[in-house]
Specification:
- The structure holds two protein chains of two kinds.
- Chain A has a single domain, classed as Orthogonal Bundle (ABC transporter involved in vitamin B12 uptake, BtuC), CATH 1.10.3470.
- Chain A is 72% helix and 3% strand.
- Chain A has eleven helices and two strands.
- In chain A, strands 1-2 form a two-stranded antiparallel ribbon.
- In chain A, a hairpin with a 2-residue loop joins strand 1 and strand 2.
- In chain A, helix 1 packs antiparallel against helix 8, helix 2 packs across helix 8 and helix 5 packs across helix 6.
- Chain A starts with a helix and ends in a 14-residue tail after the last helix.
- Chain B is α/β, with parallel strands linked by helices.
- Chain B has a domain of 165 residues: P-loop containing nucleotide triphosphate hydrolases (Rossmann fold, 3-Layer(aba) Sandwich), CATH 3.40.50.
- Chain B contains eleven helices and ten strands.
- In chain B, helix 8 links the parallel strand 7 and strand 8.
- In chain B, helix 3 packs parallel to helix 7.
- Chain B is globular.
- The chains are: A mainly alpha, B alpha/beta.
- Chains A and B meet through helix 6 and helix 7 of A and helix 2 and helix 3 of B.
- The structure holds adenosine-5'-triphosphate (ATP) and magnesium ion.
- Magnesium ion (MG) binds next to helix 1 of chain B.
Amino acid sequence: MDAKYLALAQMAVGGGLMGMAYALVAYGFQLTHAAGKAVNFGQGELVMLGAFAGISLSGIGLPYWLSVSGAMVVGALLGWFVERIAVRLALQQRNEGWILLTIIVGLFCVSLVENIWGREDRPFPTPWPAGALDFFGISVTWPELAIAAGALSIMTLVELAKRYTMVGIAVQAVSADPDAAELCGIRSRSAISLSWAVSGAAAAFAGTVIGPVTTVGPTMAAALTLKAFSVAVVAGLDSGFGLVIAGVALGAAENLSGYLLGSGWREAPGLILLILALALRPQGIFGKKIIRKV
Amino acid sequence: MLRAENLRAGYGGGDAVRGISIEVAEGSCVALVGANGAGKSTLAKALCGLVTPRGGKVFFCDKEITGLPASDVARRGLCLCPEGRRVFGPLSVEENLLLGAYPRLSSFGPFRRAASGDLQRIYAMFPRLGERRMQQAGSLSGGEQQMLAIGRVLMARPRLVVLDEPSMGLAPVVVKEVFEAIRSLHASGMTILLSEQFAKIALALSDHAYIIERGSVVLEGASKGLAKNPAVVAAYLG
Ligand SMILES: Nc1ncnc2c1ncn2[C@@H]1O[C@H](COP(=O)(O)OP(=O)(O)OP(=O)(O)O)[C@@H](O)[C@H]1O
Ligand SMILES: [Mg+2]
């Protein structure tokens, strides 16, 4: 193959694999939005906190898998906490203050991280082999593969749990009709809390797989929330695996535009996607829920 | 078994239920009859915890349940089959039924097996649900959805079911079918509180009835007697 096309393909594949992380964070948005019609605009900060938690747990000598699991527990607790202290209150008062509250919690997390871990970027240790794999001239590193495999496994696991466990079916019932779910004896608030915890765990997990590729620092959260949010809105805020396609496309487009147009253009596709997201939902991102006619 | 004392409830401004007292004895079928907007559904929701009462008390099996969340009320065996059916549209018929038994089923275990006896009972009662076990509930006809809603509430093994307008929006043939099911449910010993606009059927089916107008009980008594009461005949049976 022509060397020029090969380089482009290399860029696209590398970006696409990174895009799986966007898809995973976007999936977290879907989970909480489906259950309780709210999302965490501090999701990117949860990704970062997950990465730092993973590094610290590795630092005290825990094996890789335990560090990742520990990071996910931290993410789950934080996700649960944000819903509990910020979102629930605002939604009960029927205002949109929860948007600001989740952003504020996120900002607080950034300064917390800077105070605890400092501003330097750090490497994330992994057990993966150092070399790269070669697919028809395109090289893929193990940490990149781990992003894709990890993201797909988490999403698949959660989707299976939603379909084949009673708790999962109950969460779907709460998404469809919280009052009717209550009448079945399901505690809707607990189901929503659970969705936030799973969403937080997914975000923290994303941090542990992105970390080895990008290195970990307080700034890694910055653009992630908005990119993942755009992916979720374009793919559908309540469900759908379209977000894998949207995430991969965004990741690939970012790399390609950075390569073809210069590194300053890397963020352009994300911006375009966000505008697209807003255009797709002219009624507003959180447009009034359509009242189902009986 | 169920007793409400001077219950008040509403949304926003005024009260939709203005001091209603009712009683449902174990094993009986009690009807709430009233026109559109009389407050029957609000009363049903206030009894079952979906709307927080603004005043008054609710007792179920001699314990006060006023203001408990609906999920707790349901777990005590006071189960509402809500107006408008409210089946979980994206889920299958069988999943809807399983959800009815949710508090009893283990969260991760073999829940289908644990509930299979109850499922068979519901499918025997409504064979059409059995034929459509795997179909999306949202794609059922209105009548089938009503049967599913009744099946779902029965999956909870309730001690008392509140049926809120089970005839709403259904064709006359289907209405007949649904009321046949309610009649046999009553015959099998289930305690029922039935809210219904169709006064004629409701009075024929129930032992006792309350006539509700603008949020208050205006008449009450044995259903047979009410069905002959000239005021009731003029207003609801004419
Ligand atoms: N969700 C709601 N928000 C605000 N007002 C409501 C709501 N539901 C009912 N109402 C009002 O409360 C009053 C009583 O309504 P309710 O639904 O209890 O009557 P109903 O007797 O069940 O009538 P129907 O036979 O039409 O079902 C009505 O004036 C209605 O407009
Ligand atoms: Mg009603």
